[in-house]
Amino acid sequence: MNSTAFHSADILIPKSTADMHKWSVIACDQYTSEPEYWEAAEKEVGDARSTLRLILPEIFLEDKDVAQRIDKIHSAMDDYLAKNIFDEYKDSMIYVERVQSNGIIRKGIVGAIDLEQYDFSKGSTSQVRATEATVVERIPPRLKVRQGAALELPHIMILIDDPEDKVIGQLKPSDMKQLYSTELMQNGGSISGYLVDKDTQESIDKALASLADPDVFNKKYGLENTPVLLYAMGDGNHSLATAKEYYEQLKKSAPDKDFSNHPARYALAEIVNLHSDALKFEAIHRLVYDVDVNGLISEMTSALDLSENASEQYFTCCTSEGEKKYFIGKTSSNLSVGSLQNFLDGYIKSKGGKIDYIHGTENVKSLAAKHNGIAFILPDMDKSQLFPTVIKDGALPRKAFSMGHADDKRFYIEARKITD
Question: I need a labelling partner for 385 at 20 to 30 A (CA). Which of 71, 109, 182, 418 fits?
Answer without folding.
Answer: 109
